[in-house]
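Reopening: structure tokens for the zinc ion complex, inputs below.
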Amino acid sequence: MKVHILLGAPGCGKGTQAKRLVEKRSLIHLSTGDILRDAVSKGTEVGLRAKAIMASGKLVDDNTVNGLVFARLQDETGDVLFDGYPRTLQQAESLGKFLSLQGIGLGFVIDIEVPEGALEERVVNRRVCSNNSCGAIYHLVNKPPVKDGICDVCGSPLKHRADDTPEAFRSRMVEFNATFQPLQAFYKGMPNYRCVDGLRSTDGIHATILELFQEQA
Ligand SMILES: [Zn+2]
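Re-run output (same inputs, fresh job):
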């Protein structure tokens, strides 16, 4: 059993890459959100603690997240792909200790790198369908709707989220970088760390990641 990790800023495309990779390789896709929801619905002790923290509007702390992830890893026997975990240096260090105690190998740490200017461009041009049950996403330049301001799928008006302004983006990135940079530095020196150019097409990035796995096999 091995654990692989996908790293990258919000909007770098790691969720999409994770989905495509698990379709090709027999990997178990574990995102923190899924693990949290699962533990909450099962009503485990850590799950209930996480639920109370989320209900109070706070971010679930590192120890709680680690507890949930480790419990989940003990239930798995196949290779795992993490998407969104570890999120902090503390989580990464604890994961490292847990893996060596359990004799689980750390596989690839794949860092999908997209320059901040390009991430900002993606966010600022993003339009989303105002109909929540549809949720289609557009990009004014790369994937514009057929009719201006109208969803191709359901015909509802598109909206520009308040979170998708340049100002909101930049303040989010300041916060993100403060947490991400120490995490990235932690993995950068490791032999299985790979930086992947996230500016290419989804297909191109997917092909590069698959090659990594094929070389290893
Ligand atoms: Zn729609």
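The domain at 2-27+78-115+176-216 is CATH 3.40.50.300 (Rossmann fold). The mean pLDDT is 93. Marking as resolved unless the reporter disagrees.
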